[in-house]
Specification:
- The chain is built from 16 helices and 4 strands.
- By secondary structure, it is mainly α.
- The protein folds into 2 domains: 12-260; 275-398, no CATH class.
- It has a two-stranded antiparallel sheet with strand order 1-2.
- The protein is globular and about 80 Å long.
- The structure holds zinc ion.
- The site of zinc ion has 9 residues, from β1.
Length: 403
């Protein structure tokens, strides 16, 4: 996220509309990955990695709700960096814990010690909450017993035994969730340089509502949700930083679950290889114009393929503007920077909405789409002549066949 070259700073608009689509693509890849690894049997390291990865993706999606112009906040006009800051910090801290507890390759003793310290911290926080919330003494004793059990396990851990005595004493209190500091984890990840860490501190100050978060409110329209270049730059920089953590988490999770993911791909191939299953599967798919999964089950989403400016038909162009994502990159088809960009999934959604759902015919036994749009059956329809070039463009781009 940090630039060490001397290239001139982009405008706030250019910065934001370049970062946002990149971030959305990273989140989409993460969400696809959570689906692919769901239900995998996992020992404790992979289990906690999965839990934290889901948390990271959830925080990542919440960020989009506060980003004007994202698909979750399409017509948003409220630019509130301070509201975004706690979410960005949460995402970054989740990314750190995901690496520390889940994806960093460390030996078994160290891995267990890290997990025990996290669990001990969980106990002391619960204990604090129960004691002040007036919980029953039985409940409190239960948590105390769990904490004692964790301390006993720590005593027999070889890695923990090698830590300095003072550090061990401090860790046994359960006041911290990790053996390493945030900086130490960042060093091991090799992810944020000094400027990046300074910006993370800046985000954190806003999350904590320190004076930095409100001192300059009103100056150049800052801090009140109004559109202004400074907050837009801050939001873009924060989202860019979050993007680095999401991409890193995606890569690390892909590596941690590499075996399981490979087995899953083989299973799909084997299923398709089963002739009876394959025939039935193809038959079902032919009638399922609404089936979009086949366009989305590859290795995550891709970059823009078309844009709203690519289409001749006004209705199609308007739908594309609504479904597409603003993005400063040039459309690979028509070269426009201004058209709303459509990746494969968005294009499949557009095709479904416009050509399938939009052409419902009333049949004798209920309605059915008269146009099927999939990779298993050539499009057999005669569309209005002015739609023909648009339809052909979508077919070519999505790789659907034609008779
Ligand atoms: Zn275009």
């Amino acid at each position: 996220m940090t630039k060490s070259d001397n290239s001139p700073l982009p405008s706030a608009d250019e910065h934001y509309w370049t970062v946002l689509p990149k971030y959305i693509a990273a989140i989409d890849s993460g969400v696809t990955l959570t689906r692919r690894i769901a239900g995998q049997p996992a020992e404790s390291r992979r289990y906690w990695a999965s839990v934290l990865f889901v948390r990271l993706c959830s925080a990542g999606i919440s960020v989009l709700h506060l980003c004007p112009g994202s698909r979750a906040n399409k017509n948003g006009t409220f630019w509130d960096f301070s509201a975004l800051a706690p979410l960005i910090r949460s995402l970054v801290q989740t990314g750190l814990m995901l690496f520390y507890l889940g994806t960093e390759a460390v030996d078994e003793d160290e891995s267990r010690a890290r997990l025990l310290i996290m669990q001990l911290r969980d106990c002391t926080e619960r204990l604090h909450f129960f004691q002040h919330a007036g919980a029953s003494s039985e409940k409190i004793r239960g948590v105390e017993a769990t904490a004692d059990g964790i301390r006993a396990k720590l005593s027999s851990d070889q890695y923990f035994a090698r830590l300095p005595a003072r550090m061990r004493k401090s860790l046994r209190k359960g006041d911290t969730e990790s053996i390493l500091t945030q900086d130490q984890i960042l060093d091991r990840m090799g992810i944020l340089d000094q400027a990046g860490r300074a910006f993370l501190g800046f985000v954190s100050s806003h999350a904590d509502v320190s004076p930095l978060a409100y001192y300059r409110t009103g100056e150049k329209n800052r801090g009140r949700g109004e559109e202004n270049d400074i907050d837009k730059h801050y939001i873009a920089t924060a989202v860019d930083m979050a993007c680095d953590f999401v991409l890193r988490a995606n890569a690390d999770m892909g590596a941690l679950f590499a075996e399981a993911l490979a087995v899953k791909s083989q299973e799909v191939a084997a299923e398709v290889g089963n002739e009876r299953f394959r025939h039935a599967f193809e038959f079902v798919k032919q009638g399922q114009g609404a089936l979009l999964e086949e366009f989305t089950d590859d290795d995550g989403p891709e970059g823009p393929m078309l844009c709203s400016g690519c289409f001749h038909d006004v209705g199609l162009r308007l739908s594309a503007e609504r479904i597409g994502q603003r993005d400063m990159s040039k459309c690979p088809n028509c070269g426009s920077q201004l058209g709303m960009k459509l990746n494969k999934i968005a294009l499949a959604v557009l095709a479904k909405e416009f050509f399938v759902s939009g052409t419902i015919e009333r049949g004798r036994y209920g309605g059915s789409p008269s146009v099927q749009f999939n990779r298993h059956q050539p499009t057999s329809i005669d569309v209005m002549p002015w739609l023909r070039p648009d339809l052909e463009l979508i077919e070519r781009t999505l790789g659907v066949c034609r008779a």
